[in-house]
Amino acid sequence: MDKFQVKYSTGQTSRLYDAEASFYPHKITLNYLDENGILCTVDWEKEKINSTRYGASFNNSLTYGDFPFQTINADETFFKALKTAFPQLAATDSTAVLIKKKTWQTIFLSLILVAIFTASCYFYFIPALADNLAQTIPYEYEEMLGEQVYDRNMAAFNFDINEEKTKLVNEYFKNLHIADGKTVHITVVDYDEANAFAMPGGYIVLFSGLLDQMRHHEELAGVLAHEYAHVHYRHSLRSMARSLANYAVISLIIGDVSGLAGIIVENADNVRSLQYSRQLEVEADNYAFDALDSQGISPQGIIWLFESLSAAHEKNDVQISVPEFLSTHPDTQKRIENIETQLKENPKKYPNNERLQRSWKVIKAEGK
């Protein structure tokens, strides 16, 4: 009868004994010397061998009885002999391996589904929910938030407000007659960068560097109409809510709940570089077109501004970071084509607005 060298554990301690294992028709007999050098014999009855635990797939271990399990650790030779002596255990082992394989497949598939669900929540459901909730906030609360965000930005970037141009541009905007009842606060700051951005509650900041690049008053009308579209549709508040919701979810996942306050502050400070989605930018372009067209002001100024700023940016002729309204989301050329298409579909001759022209000349002359 063949004997096999194995490692044996009684299950009572973690100690492993060197043992000899022999196969009999209905049992496995183990002989080993205990810590006192006394020869001990243990019989494993075939019916009590935990067959689902053995085989190379299970670290070459075999257990016996109830918890705490007795254990044998052995090489492949032992397990080949085991399958020969007890073939019914071999069949059970194959089933166990198959079950284990399918279990891991199920776990892997479940992880993929969880990842897809989490990504869907992060990129779609949570932002959409935040967007809808933001639109239910009363406008007076948005105005209070906007005032705080405005004050933080003015202080954070140490902007120098051009009081005279601020007054003139606000008067120009009123003469556009495109506001729908929302209060608008336009501030012109002396800054070489060609940019403009809107904040919650009707706050709009216009950089003098952008005014310097304009050649026609219709360009100023286009910028103000576009920025007012963000105010009208509450794009700033909605975009901040979407961004905040995603950051908040990440903070909750990693357990940094205390960081939520910092996230709110960070979003307030970053409103200057807030990027709107492709859909929101096109929505603002279309609103600006319709608003100007309804007041007899040519939307061609939007195209003129896009073209002049794009050319200046490519040539690096001005200190310009691509403005929010001229961002590559969507592509500037496609936005130009969008306005051109609408002009072709609605051909008309726009009258010269002498009042706006006079205001424009005063604005351009101020500070020279």
Q: Provide the helix percentage.
A: 40-55%
Supply Rg. 38 Å
* N to C succession of SSEs: EEEEEEEHHHHEEEHHHHHHHH
Whole-number mean pLDDT:
81
Total number of helical segments? 12
Distance between the termini: 110 Å
Query: How many structurally independent domains?
Result: 2
Q: Please describe the biggest sheet, giving its number of strands, its sense, and whether it closes into a barrel.
A: 7 strands, antiparallel
User: What is the number of E strands?
Assistant: 10
General shape? rod-shaped
| Low-pLDDT residue intervals, each spanning 5 or more residues | 52-58, 268-274, 318-330
Strand order of the largest sheet: 4-3-2-1-7-6-5
Beta percentage is 5-15%
What is the SS-derived class? alpha+beta
Quick overview:
The protein has helices at residues 76-85, 87-135, 139-156, 163-176, 208-213, 217-232, 235-253, 260-269, 278-294, 300-315, 332-345, 354-365; strands at 3-9, 17-24, 27-33, 39-45, 49-50, 61-64, 70-73, 185-189, 196-199, 203-207.
Explain what this protein looks like in three dimensions:
The protein has 368 residues and is of the alpha+beta class. It has twelve helices and ten strands. The model is unreliable at 52-58, 268-274 and 318-330 (pLDDT under 50). The strands form two sheets. Strands 4-3-2-1-7-6-5 form a seven-stranded antiparallel sheet. It folds into two domains: 3-94, PH-domain like (Roll), CATH 2.30.29.30; 137-365, no CATH class. The longest helix has 49 residues, at 87-135.
